[in-house]
Amino acid sequence: MGQQTLGQARRKGWILDLRITERGEPARGFVLLKAEPLEGRLPECRPGQFAQLQTRGAFLRRPISIHNVEAGRVWFLIQVVGEGSRWFAMLKEGDVLNAVMPLGNGFPMPVAGARVLLVGGGVGVAPLLYQGRMLKQRGVDFAFLLGARNRDALLQLDEFRRVGRVFVTTEDGSEGTRGFVTQHGILSGTDEADFGTPTLIQTCGPTPMMRAVAQSAQSRGIRCQLSLENRMACGVGACLCCVQQTKEGHKCVCTEGPVFEAQDIIF
Predict the structure, then answer these.
(1) Domain boundary among 54, 75, 103
(2) What stretches of the chain show up as alpha helix (H) in DSSP?
(3) Is 29 exposed, middle or buried (0-12, 13-18, 19+ CB in 10 A)?
(4) Total Cβ atoms within 10 A of residue 249
(5) Among candidate residues 76, 103, 130, the one where a domain is terminated
(6) Same domain, yes or no, for 195 and 92?
(7) N or C, fewer C-beta in 10 Å, the chain?
(8) What's the domain range around 87?
(9) What is the count of structural domains for the chain?
């Protein structure tokens, strides 16, 4: 069997109440929430899908990537930047969070024998942890390439290292290779660090980073998939807030993404 298509990765959303079982602050300005359903069990979730989380006193939910699913709990890695995310940061163990999940398309799973490079920047690293775990379970050769401004801005580095090989870039050189992820030899092809040439790159992060990663992949003839982070409101394709221009016309990132083939996206 060949690689799954993006359409086959689509899953139905559920509405459920989640009890916070653990809370942490992996870096300044970020909160990590681990939660389990008040009743029943989590629906099947795929790496790259997201949840629409309800905040107190707000009509619109907030879209948050699924960071990991483990032992019946879902993890959310949240950057605290506005009123809604500040409310998430105030949650404590035992508090209840309402979620619609899972939504959108996940990352397609390549067949065994593929060599996958998972490239993330900033809070865009969130969906890559779960993807790495799934690749590991399926025996797929993979590595993480994670970028940040400095050592203190690297998120969940120990967790990523528990899952697989991790290559790091920081803009100030305080950890790993100095520069951006696109300047690392494993992506540029100048020094592949015993990993070899990837057959597939899957990436999530700031749009300029993903554009540069896609251009680098295209120049080397490597397939690349992007998890877009367009601003969303409804999460179900009704508001058209997250529409992305593609070679096949405009598409809703929340329902037809967030994962797209890089070659189809018009930035």
Answers:
(1) 103
(2) 83-90, 126-137, 157-163, 185-188, 207-219, 253-256
(3) middle
(4) 9
(5) 103
(6) no
(7) N
(8) 7-103
(9) 2
The gap from C-alpha 16 to its chain's centroid, in whole angstroms, comes to 21
Q: Is residue 109 part of a domain?
A: no
Unique residue bearing structure tokens 């790259």: 48
Q: How many CA atoms lie within 13 A of 114 on its CB side?
A: 24
Same domain, 39 and 155: no
Check whether residue 233 and residue 212 sit in a common domain. Answer: yes
CB 196 within 8 A of CB 114: no
Residue 207 in tokens: 């749009």
